[in-house]
Amino acid sequence: MLELAVARALYERYPAFTEGRLAKVRSHVVSRQSCAVVARQLDLGKTLLERGAEIPADELERLSKNRNVLAALLEAALAALFLEHGFERIEQPVVKAFDPRIEYAMTTHVDYKTELQEALARRGQSVSYSVLEVDGPPHDRRFTCAAAIDGEQLGVGNGASKKAAEQEAAQQALAALGIDDPPG
After folding, report:
1. Which of 100, 112, 81 is nearest to 180 (CA)?
2. In this structure, are 79 and 158 located in the same domain?
């Protein structure tokens, strides 16, 4: 339901964009990270704190801030709204809630890994990623990853997830290769 609503909004707003660019933007907008951002904006963590009486307080506090939990809460809420009211009634409010994420995806290059992979494919090269370091307790990990092209490390990134660290490493590799502007 979320993907359909966002896909239609993007298609209607940006008819001149290629299918590939629209798909990349849609993918970012409906990602777990974006769902967690929207969940925070809607204060779903606070709602969980208020209604999670059977969960121990320290665990409830941790869960109310966890990105994956917040994203899952939002997805569950959207599913409930869809079942209760149908797609037509909730499509526009859902798109409105995700408008800032759409704007962010349109103004910020959000998929450096794909961009790097596509640029390298045109050159007959490929990239490999490796985890250099993992720090922190299981509930608060920090990852450091490297992007290597033909055995040469061209980017290193840090993030709260392996994927985020790889994205940052890919961004650095793109810059090192002089590929700073994504094709439109």
Report:
1. 112
2. no
Could you give the CA distance from residue 173 to residue 22 in angstroms, rounded to a whole number?
A: 24
**Partners of 153 in the beta sheet?**
148
Amino acid in position 50: E
**Element of type H or E holding 144:** strand 142-149
Question: Residue for token digits 């992007």?
Answer: 147
- Over residues 92-107, the pLDDT tens digits come to 999 999 999 999 888 7
- Would you say residue 154 lies in a domain? yes
User: Are residues 97 and 7 located together in one domain of the fold?
Assistant: yes
Which residue has 């109310």 as its token pair? 64
Can you tell me which residue has the tokens 């809420």? 77
57 neighbors 83 (Cβ within 8 angstroms): no
Looking at 59, 76, 107, the residue that finishes a domain is 107
Element of type H or E holding 129: strand 127-135
Q: What is the pLDDT of residues 52-97, one digit of tens each?
A: 878 888 888 888 888 889 999 999 999 999 999 999 999 999 999 9
